[in-house]
Every structure is written in C-alpha cells, then in structure tokens.
From TrEMBL:
The Tat system comprises two distinct complexes: a TatABC complex, containing multiple copies of TatA, TatB and TatC subunits, and a separate TatA complex, containing only TatA subunits. Substrates initially bind to the TatABC complex, which probably triggers association of the separate TatA complex to form the active translocon. This is Sec-independent protein translocase protein TatB. The chain crosses the membrane at residues 6-22. The lineage of its organism: Bacteria, Bacillati, Actinomycetota, Actinomycetes, Kitasatosporales. Keywords: Cell membrane, Membrane, Protein transport, Translocation, Transmembrane, Transmembrane helix, Transport. It comes from Streptomyces purpureus. One of its GO terms (molecular function) is protein transmembrane transporter activity. GO terms for cellular component: TAT protein transport complex. Belongs to the TatB family. It is a single-pass membrane protein. Signal peptide: none annotated. The gene is tatB. Part of the twin-arginine translocation (Tat) system that transports large folded proteins containing a characteristic twin-arginine motif in their signal peptide across membranes. Together with TatC, TatB is part of a receptor directly interacting with Tat signal peptides. TatB may form an oligomeric binding site that transiently accommodates folded Tat precursor proteins before their translocation. Residues 128-148 have a biased composition (Basic and acidic residues).
Length: 148
C-alpha cells in the first residue's frame, strides 16, 4: 500500500499527524482510521460476493480485475495461440528495409542490393521507379503556383 512512500516522507507524515492531532488523541485517530478502512474492505467484498451470486454459475470464474482493460488484454493475449503466427509474420516483415527501398526509389538512387541479386530484376522486367537518363526527362516542367 505504501510502496511509493520513502522513509523521509513517512517521518514527515508522522510528525504532521502528531502536530495536528496531538500525542494523546493520535492512537484514537489511528484506531478510527483502521476501523473505517476495515469496514470499506468488508463492504467491497460483500458487494463482490453479491454481484457474483447474481450473475449465476456461468460467471463463477469472473474476476473484477478483468474489468481493467490492460489486465483484460494481457489475459486474452496470454491465452491466445495465434500470437505465434503474428510473431512469425512480424519477424518476416522488415519495415526499415521497405522504407529505405522506397526512399531510394523516390530519390532516384540505386537500391543497395546484395551481390547475389541483380538490380534489373530476375524476370528481366524494367524497373518502373528508376529515373531515366534521357535529357528530356531530366528537365522539370515549369512550376505554376496558380494551378496548384
């Protein structure tokens, strides 16, 4: 419950409680606070039991922690065997390589290809994304700001 409170913070809370309530009333305040927390826990357990009994036997393994979306997704993904197929698909797809190939094609650079693969393609089809070296293609048409 107090896992994120450090030692110095805990000492400051105790000193503050002694200053506010005084040393003679502090034990009674602590007892009242613990009694209040205990009653809240009993009430929540009773409410959980009532909800489970009203839902019926088909929801006997229902956990209220599953209502948290993160816990629900974690549970569903842990039980699902299709993740193996997704991981295989993810490992076969290299997004960084695809992006560099597209940027090389757009910029007109020759893609970095291993020596075993020919740049013109194995089937002999021309590369449609490759820039042409003819002078009429090297010249860009004039830019018309009104047309855009």
């Amino acid at each position: 419950m107090f896992s994120d409170i450090g030692g110095l913070e805990l000492v400051m809370l105790v000193i503050l409680a002694v200053l506010i309530f005084g040393p003679d009333k502090l034990p009674k305040v602590i007892q009242d606070a613990s009694r209040f927390i205990r009653k809240i826990r009993e009430f929540s357990e009773s409410a959980k039991h009532d909800i489970r009994s009203e839902l019926g036997p088909e929801f006997k393994d229902f956990e209220f922690e599953d209502l948290n979306p993160k816990a629900f997704l974690r549970k569903q993904l842990a039980e699902n065997d299709d993740l193996k197929e997704l991981n295989e698909l993810r490992s076969s797809f290299d997004l960084k390589k695809e992006i560099t190939e597209v940027t090389d094609a757009v910029n007109g650079r020759e893609p970095e290809v291993p020596a075993a693969v020919n740049g013109s393609g194995a089937s002999g089809t021309p590369d449609m994304l490759k820039k042409r070296d003819t002078p009429e293609q090297a010249e860009r048409p004039p830019f018309d700001a009104d047309a855009t």
